[in-house]
TrEMBL record:
Protein's UniProt name: Methyltransferase type 11 domain-containing protein
MF terms (GO), sorted A to Z: S-adenosylmethionine-dependent methyltransferase activity
Domain Methyltransferase type, first and last residues per copy: 37-135
Domain of life, per lineage: Bacteria
PANTHER family referenced in this protein's UniProt entry, alphabetically: METHYLTRANSFERASE
Short name of one Pfam family: Methyltransf_11
Amino acid sequence: MGRAELTRPIQASDVEEIKNIVVDLRDLTISAELEVLDVGAGGESVIFRSLGREIYGLESAEEEMNITREKGIEDIVGAKIHWIQGDAREMPLDDRQFDVVTSFFTCMYMRDTENKQKMLNECYRVLKADGVLYLWDFSITTLKQVFVGKLEILLPGDQAVSVSYGIGGEEKEQSLEGMKEIAANAGFTLLQEEVNSPYFFLKFGKK
Ligand SMILES: C[S@@+](CC[C@H](N)C(=O)[O-])C[C@H]1O[C@@H](n2cnc3c(N)ncnc32)[C@H](O)[C@@H]1O
């Protein structure tokens, strides 16, 4: 049995919850002529809302796409998400299609290094030769069964979104250095690094 495996209902003491994590996306801009793919684009569709323009959204979960639709987020933004249902580790996309790929707290759901590597290899493959990857994610070191980060995301136009992203069970540990190594193995060059514990932002170039 793994050290974090439970044989009883989950309790508050099994959860590491980090509150009041502010992610400021008010200055996030990507030129309108660049093709953007957001990986794990459903739910609150934070990247789409931040950019306020047409994007391609890869999402594995139909229910997450439905949440975006039910919230009327495309109408609110006044632009379209071109949905692609599929797996970030095996994207149903051609090589070198996008100028920018974004991943907003999606890598954590790949869990182990092998699956994160598959995802970043795919991000590299679908980017054009001078493409850029923007990656936000948590450093997760807890020994508890469940990790939850509660984010307050600041968007342009004085908007804000409150979301909680959580993950439980084995193989949820994730580190900044580990992610940089995985990205380097995929072929990426690190362009920018910002650490706002417990989350980090990394920007990588394809060359
Ligand atoms: C924490 S959410 C990302 C942020 C979310 N787009 C938002 O704006 O709130 C992670 C998203 O990645 C999706 N996801 C998880 N595993 C995936 C996979 N293997 N392939 C594609 N999407 C995946 C989840 O369904 C979820 O919508």
